[in-house]
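User: Second chain of the day. Same drill as before.
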Amino acid sequence: MVVTQSHDSAPSVATGRELPTIRAASPSRSALVRVSYNFARISRMSHEIDEYFDVFIGDRIAHRSEVKLLRALSEFSNENKQPLLVFANFELSGRQFDFVVITAARVVVTEVKSSAFPVRGNMEGTWEYATADGGWATVTNGYKQALQRKNILRDAMGRLPERFHPEAHVVFSNDIPEGSDLTPGNFKVHVGDLADFLATLSREDGNPWSLEEWRQWARRQRLMRVPLIEAFDNAPAELIGRYREAVVRDYQPQADGWIAASDQHRDAIASALVGGSAGAFVKGPSGCGKSLMVKAAAVHLARDGAVVLFVQAKDISESLADALKTEIALVADIPLASLLKAVRQTSTRVCIFLDGINELPGAIFEKTLRGLKILARRYGAQLVVTSQGKRPAILEGLTLIAVGEPDDDLKNKIATSVATSSLSAGAKKVLAGGAERPRGENGGRTSRSPRPRCHKKQPC
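Assistant: Same format as last time:
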């Protein structure tokens, strides 16, 4: 069996050859031979994979980092023709285990981690992950976590030679982020990346049981033996996929109405989000195209795999959470709690958009921005915020993007390429002030009232 793999979904199975369609009429001899050949080939290849790689699970795997590790183990086993037994996502003595990886000569308790931002921590104390807003979030000490679980496993194995202890590894499924200050561990628990972990699996160490004895132990723990393709829980990734498609479908018409003044203008938000920054603050007068600009960025990010949470400040009457629930239900008919749970399970990138904070009622202004920061920290999200006014102190970490009124040339492009229904009232007012005026019968321009001046205390 040939297993084709992708980062965002469970493996798909291909036979390597198209199977003929079987019809009600009697098949020809050659068709029967082709069918027999293919089924024999599938059976033989399935046997080869089962011979080297065996998976037992307590529950199906949804976390992206764990999915990546299990796929890497499968590839390692088959490329090196090394029998490998993996117990995944199960409980023992009330503790959750990510993996126990077993070869003929090794038993390795494995805790899987991932982070796009720097990590710091030692063998003692807590670990911390950097957040997009420049702070640090406290998390469980991975070294202690792995050490505790390897001791639990040894106790659960029963009477053993005194000198035997399972190994333990904390494995970052991607490279450990640049700027991290993290212990490498010691002989009790190793801390490193996926490549380091895979390199250790071929070393000789010690395993008091045969692979068949481990299979019997797994059955006593009520673990399910499954083919690799059935070890993954695709539901969270599928839910996120449906949501992203809905975001693109709903926001695309407005995004299509945006015409950038320049290539630099077009890429400004994407550039501000590169490298895991806190996000972007887009400032400009009414009608300059901020809302269309951020809708275009939201569509781009959703297409690129991110979960986009988009709220217009004018829709917030009581709380940011209520506005998010309403928007997500209208866009995709998905409960906010379900979407955020899927985000946690899959470690999907999150970007939160808050459009037009100058329209927030004063009574909830500070409360809304504090809630926005808390939500961003909880899910490691980047922020994109727009306003007619200056950037609030609480959002100082966001990259400032200044957008001015379009010049006459850009106004003419907008007037000839965009349906006015996709424009805001402010944009229509700006457009009317600078687009080409209709000509009169004598070839001159028709008269019209001059554009009103803006009051100093009111945005125009």
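Residues 2-13+36-233 form one domain.

User: Great, on to the next one.
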